[in-house]
Design a protein that fits this description.
The complex is a heterotrimer. By secondary structure, chain A is mainly α. Helix content of chain A is about 65%, strand content about 0%. Chain B has 2 domains: about 45 residues, no CATH class; about 140 residues, Four Helix Bundle (Hemerythrin (Met), subunit A). Classes of the chains: A mainly alpha, B mainly alpha, C mainly beta.
């Protein structure tokens, strides 16, 4: 068991004026291995990457582990960044690939196809069903309750904004499967939220 | 016009504008007279809208210190010391120490009963070996000094000053020993003192470099030899 | 109006606007700096079970570490942060406990330049009597008392003090002083001081290895079987007894070397200095060479060499300096 002083005050965050473009100086410093420059990069982009990772993984704890892995990977690979896109985009793509690897490896471990919600239920029936009457939870918590494969498709489509065709390619599923998974996820979430 | 309810995926596609114009019109017409399906569509739209407006999640405050530690653990030296430099230092040290042992063991041998000429030859040989040892120690010292100078900024000023001051003390000992050997090249105390001073300098430089490396990685200290 | 003239007229206005925009953050910053924050404290207390002979390590940057013994098989940890509350967020106390051990450390996030965090953490730790402790500090005093397990201590600029901890195996400081009282075990003690002073009272160990640069070494009531000591300008003093067949090898550049010996253990002495003197209270077979080496070529230095056998000559003393004096006294 590892305890942390949970009464610790927030760790120091660098306050950076957010601009659309990163300063080339920041990227250059990162490429030289400057950890403090990386802290600035983290301050700018960690929320976006953590959001993706935590939601894809279905837990903030796993999301934080993935966040660490992603930034470490970025630290190691930033030397190869040639400036063809904004550094944020580069980071996000690396994060997405890392999350997809995580998802695929988890699926492989579970050794079953994308977990689905029961195919037989009619929309109306799904809409009427609730886990426990009167329970209201927020959307984040509700998403965590989705089955893994279903959640990932939902996050990529409804939260991150990818098209079904793109999601199908990312996850190695049929486009139709992507559509049906989003539908079922939405129905389940609606049931959990009302 | 659709007389039976559209399936869920079709309603979902309707919400996402994923139907053909004709199919879209059919669903719209159905919804105009089907409250049940309209409720489903409203529900789907509500979730989709809420999901698209989800705020970014913030990682815990403790996340960055963890990440920083792992970055620092993998951070190379600001000016990375090539492995060759370290190997050169190690090689020089090995040779220097070996020569030092050789000199000491020569002295420890019982006095020869042969003529003074042999004694003189042994003394000269010891001097030559001492010079060689000095050369190798100097090489090792230069290598370590370079590493130390590259990373000096990582130490707090007080510690850096203490270490520099003590390096001067050792340098003084080296100068005094050398000066003595210039006048009396065969003086054993002077020879021993020179070798001991070199060893002390190496040890102090190694301590300094170890401290620099520890400070770069963060304040968690590591213990030499543990 | 030409474009150039417009620009010329507009420039001061733009500059003024720019400076206004710049001034605001500066004014805000000044406002913030104008408030002096009072120093505050925050205490964190925990108890962790490690077993009667568990291992405890503490790694601290700024602040004292005090370790003593309590009964039972638990470690009690009291960490008090001192500083300005706004700086507390940079400092985390980490308690990492696993079966049989607990590792406690102070972590500073985003240290830009060394030592600008202005937050110190004082640790008061109670450990089971048989626990082993490993303490590391940058600045701040390290104190250990009554711990019977192995003790390893390291400090950069803080002092290290032990009392009633018999098994100190390793102690090191850069500029702090070391005070070891009551070290007594059949094991090996390694000590390194760069510029601090080492004082040890009642030191008994199978072997003692000391390295100093400018720090003095003062050993009282010492009874070690093997001593190897190196110093450059610090002095070395061993007041105590020699072990039969013991080996004592001390080399100093300019520091004095002194042995003050009790009981009657015989020893063989080989002492030499390039320019310092060698003096001994002992009558015996003394071969004092002035400017003479060990029969190997001329040594015309002003120093002295002494070869002597006292009593049965069972222990061996090898004492060498460059310019420091060598003294072997009877206590």
């Amino acid at each position: 068991m590892r305890q942390r002083d949970t009464r610790a005050f927030p760790s120091n965050r660098v306050t950076v004026n957010r601009t659309d473009e990163e300063s080339p100086d920041l990227v250059a410093r990162c490429q030289k291995g400057d950890v403090e420059a990386f802290a600035e990069l983290y301050a700018r982009h960690s929320a976006r990457i953590f959001s993706l990772a935590a939601r894809m993984a279905g837990s903030p704890e796993t999301g934080e582990d993935l966040l660490q892995e992603i930034f470490l990977q970025a630290y190691r690979k930033i030397g190869g960044f040639k400036g063809g896109s904004a550094i944020g985009t580069w980071l996000y793509r690396m994060a997405l690939n890392h999350c997809l690897d995580f998802v695929r490896s988890r699926q492989a471990k579970m050794d079953k196809a994308t977990a689905t919600i029961d195919d037989d239920e009619r929309p109306a029936a799904l809409a009427a069903r609730r886990d426990s009457p009167g329970e209201r939870i927020d959307l984040e918590r509700a998403m965590q309750q989705l089955p893994a494969g279903c959640r990932e498709v939902f996050v990529l489509h409804d939260v991150e904004g990818y098209e079904h065709k793109e999601i199908a390619a990312m996850l190695g599923i049929a486009e139709g499967t992507s559509k049906s998974q989003v539908f079922k996820a939405r129905m389940k979430l609606r049931a959990l939220l009302t | 016009m659709i007389t039976s309810h559209p399936d869920g995926v079709t309603l979902n596609d309707y919400v996402d504008d994923g139907l053909t114009a004709a199919a879209r019109a059919d669903v719209r017409d159905h919804l105009a007279s089907c409250a049940e399906c309209q409720t489903v569509v409203d529900g789907l739209r509500g979730v989709q809208s809420a999901a698209s407006r989800l705020p970014l999640l913030q990682p815990r405050r403790e996340a960055w210190p963890r990440i920083e530690r792992s970055l620092r653990a993998s951070v190379p030296a600001r000016r990375p010391v090539p492995w060759a430099a370290w190997l050169a230092v190690a090689a020089s040290l090995l040779v220097a120490v070996a020569l030092g042992f050789q000199i000491a063991s020569r002295r420890a041998q019982p006095a020869s009963s042969t003529a003074d000429a042999d004694t003189d030859a042994t003394a000269q040989s010891i001097e030559a070996e001492l010079r060689q040892a000095e050369e190798h120690y100097q090489k090792a010292i230069s290598g370590l000094e370079q590493i130390k100078n590259d990373g000096k900024g990582s130490l707090d000023p007080q510690t850096a000053a203490t270490l520099e001051k003590n390096l001067s003390v050792v340098d003084q000992a080296i100068s005094e020993s050398r000066a003595a050997l210039k006048v009396q090249p065969t003086s054993e105390p002077a020879q021993a003192s020179l070798l001991e001073s070199f060893k002390a300098k190496i040890s102090l430089l190694q301590d300094t470099v170890a401290l620099i490396n520890e400070m770069r990685q963060g304040p968690a200290l590591t213990q030499k030899g543990s | 109006m030409t474009l150039a003239r417009t620009a010329a007229l507009a420039a001061p206005v733009l500059l003024l606007l720019a400076s206004e925009v710049q001034a605001q953050p500066v004014q805000l910053a000044r406002l913030y700096q104008g408030r002096r924050e009072a120093e505050q404290s925050e205490r964190i207390s925990r108890k962790v079970r490690v077993g009667r002979d568990g291992r405890v390590s503490v790694s601290n940057v700024s602040g004292d570490i005090t370790v003593s013994t309590i009964g039972g098989d638990e470690v009690s940890i009291d960490a008090v942060k001192h500083g300005t509350r706004s700086a507390f967020d940079r400092v985390t106390v980490v308690i990492d406990d696993r079966p049989g051990r607990v590792d406690i450390s102070t972590e500073y996030s985003r240290i830009g330049r060394w030592g600008n965090t202005n937050v110190s953490v004082d640790y008061t730790i109670g450990v089971p009597e048989g626990a082993s402790v490993d303490l590391k500090s940058v600045s701040g005093t390290v104190r250990v008392s009554a711990v019977k397990g192995s003790v390893r201590l390291q400090s950069i600029s803080g002092n290290v003090v032990t009392a009633g901890a018999p098994r100190v195996e390793f102690a090191k400081t850069v500029s702090g002083n070391l005070e070891l009282n009551g070290v007594s075990f059949d094991g090996d003690l390694s000590v390194a001081v760069i510029s601090g002073t080492l004082r040890a009272n009642g030191l008994k160990a199978r072997s003692l290895d000391i390295n100093s640069v400018s720090g003095d070494v003062l050993l009282r009531n010492a009874a070690c079987e093997r001593v190897s000591a190196r110093t450059i300008s610090g002095s070395f003093e061993y007041a105590g007894t020699l072990a039969r067949n013991g080996r004592y090898d001390v080399a100093s550049h300019s520091g004095d070397v002194r042995f003050a010996l009790g009981d009657g253990t015989g020893f063989e002495l080989s002492a030499g200095s390039f320019s310092g003197s060698v003096r001994s209270d002992y009558a015996g077979t003394l071969d004092i060479g002035r400017g003479r080496g060990r029969g190997r070529g001329p040594n015309r230095g002003p120093g002295q060499t002494v070869q002597a056998t006292i009593g049965d000559g069972s222990a061996r003393l090898e004492l060498h300096t460059f310019s420091g004096n060598i003294v072997i006294d009877k206590r």
